[in-house]
C-alpha cells in the first residue's frame, strides 16, 4: 500500500506528465533498448519509429498517476494491456528493467525538478503498478495454458492454405504442427505471430485479428501487405508473410488474446462497420452472430478505396443472401468504374442514419482517420458511449 504522502507526491506530478510525458517515454525506450537490446526481440520497431508506442505509454503513465489513489479505476486498462503482454510473452523479470529505465528517463528529462522525493515516490508507485500487472498477467497465463487446446508461449503452426483475398490482403489458414487441439477464442480476438525474416537481427512480433468465427480446426488471419509509402517504410512482417511464407511453412503463434470482443448476450440490433483490413475482427463477429443469434438484426458496412482493395466481398454477399436477418452495404472512396457499391466517398452520419438504427450496438475497426470519423458521427447522433465499441490496430490511441 502507498502512503498518503507518496500518493500526494505522485498526483502533484500529473501536470508535469501531461506536458513532458511523451519526452519521458521516448527517452525511456531509447535507454532501455540501449541497456537491454534483447528486448528488441519483443517490441514492435515500427511503433517505436512512428512514436505510437511512446505516446501510448505516456497516456498509460499519466492515467496511473491521475488514478494512483484509486488504481481499481484503471483495472480495465490494466487487463487490456495485460492481454497484449501475455500474447507477447512479457514475464515478471521484465518489470524491474522497465522500472529502472523509467525512473532514469524521468530524471533525465526533468533534471533537477525530479527531486529525490519525487523519484522515491515514483519508485514505490511503479512497484505497486507492476505488481498489479504481474498478478493480472499470471492469471491470464494460467487460464490460457489450462484451457482446452491452450498453451504457454509460442507454438509452431503450419500454413495449411494461403488465399489471396484482394490486391493487398491475403489470408493464412494455420494448423498446429503437433496435430493437437487448438484453443477457442472470442470473436474479435487476435493471435500473435513471431518471425525472423532473413537478414533481420531481431525477431519481429505482430498481433493479427482472427478473421473467422471460432470452432474450426484452424486459425485464420487476413493480413494487409504494408508497402513503403512516403515517410513510412514497408511493413517487415506483412511483406515477409506475403512474399516469403508459403503453404507448408511453419510460423510461431501465441494463443488467442484481446479484449475487443462481441457481446452475444444482448439481442439489440448489431451494426458492424469496417474500413480496409479492419474487416478482420468484423468478419469473425459477423459469422459468430449469424450462427449464435439467428434472430438478431445485423447490419454490416464495409468501406474500401475501391473494388481492388475489397476483401471477402463475395463471402459477405453469400451470407447476406442466406440470412434474412443480415443487411450488408459497401462504400467505395473511389470506385474503379461504374459503382457496384451503395455509397461513394466516405461513410457519414446522414447515410448511417439511413441504413442503421440509433438503437443498436456499434462495433467498428479500421484506419485511425476512418475510426475517428465513425466515432464522431455516432457521438453527434447521440449513441450512448456503452454502445460504441472499437479497436486500434497497434498501441491504443485517441479518437
TrEMBL record:
Span of domain FAD-binding FR-type: 152-263
Entry's Gene Ontology BP terms: cellular response to nitrosative stress; nitric oxide catabolic process; response to toxic substance
Domain Globin: 1-138
Residues at which FAD binds: 190, 392-395
An example molecular function term from Gene Ontology annotations: FAD binding
Matches recorded under SUPFAM superfamilies: Ferredoxin reductase-like, C-terminal NADP-linked domain, Globin-like, Riboflavin synthase domain-like
The organism's place on the tree of life at top rank: Bacteria
Keywords: Detoxification, FAD, Flavoprotein, Heme, Iron, Metal-binding, NAD, NADP, Oxidoreductase, Oxygen transport, Transport
Entry cofactors: FAD; heme b
Catalytic activity as recorded in UniProt: 2 nitric oxide + NADPH + 2 O2 = 2 nitrate + NADP(+) + H(+); 2 nitric oxide + NADH + 2 O2 = 2 nitrate + NAD(+) + H(+)
Pfam family, one: NAD_binding_1
Protein name: Flavohemoprotein
Annotated source species: Paenibacillus dendrobii
Gene encoding the protein: hmpA
